[in-house]
Amino acid sequence: MKLYYSPGACSLASHIILNEINVDFDLVRVDLKTHKTEKGADYYEINPKGYVPALEINPGLILTENVAILPFLAQHDPKQDLIPPSGLGRAKVLEWLGYLNSELHDAYAVFFGAPLNDEAKAKGYAEIDRLLSYIDKAISESDNDYLVDDNFGPADAYLFVLTNWSNLIHHDLTPYKNIIALRNKVAARQSVQIAMRDEGLIP
Ligand SMILES: N[C@@H](CCC(=O)N[C@@H](CS)C(=O)NCC(=O)O)C(=O)O
Question: Is the shortest distance between the CB of 32 and ligand 1 below 6 Å?
């Protein structure tokens, strides 16, 4: 398999899950400003949507969208504990992925488009805070070790990656103690450390 990624972007979640499963994969870095790969290929020829992640499963067979790639990769887990194979447990993973993708990801993405004035920034922070408050409360009311059950999975990886962006946009995560505790567990995983190192995010 081959993952098209950009350092620290949402594709980092797929990179983490690739490290969790026992498959060989290649990484291809994409410049999201020029939409060229590290070898100068036109990325639109590979993924006409222009964004990362894109997963090449076989030559010419491309899967896009975080909500599709993450469960697809997770189900290749030989330990079978990254995602339940079916039933309500799997639906709960998809529920989290949908929420993170359509709500939290979008709320952060506002800060990565055209520069914002102070009013737009305040509105953007308030929306992120509204969503994080919900997530923090959901974690506090759950007995699970991770978002869905007691096993780390793709929703945890995705929440970790999105909340990394608070640092980039000068947003304060410290009120969200339960999210921070979850982030710490995720950050300690070898798969995460290796992915972040291989993307040049940590030494
Ligand atoms: N709906 C897509 C959105 C992916 C997305 O927003 N990717 C960002 C990086 S986190 C990107 O590549 N932006 C550059 C661009 O859209 O050209 C998904 O969930 O996979």
Answer: yes
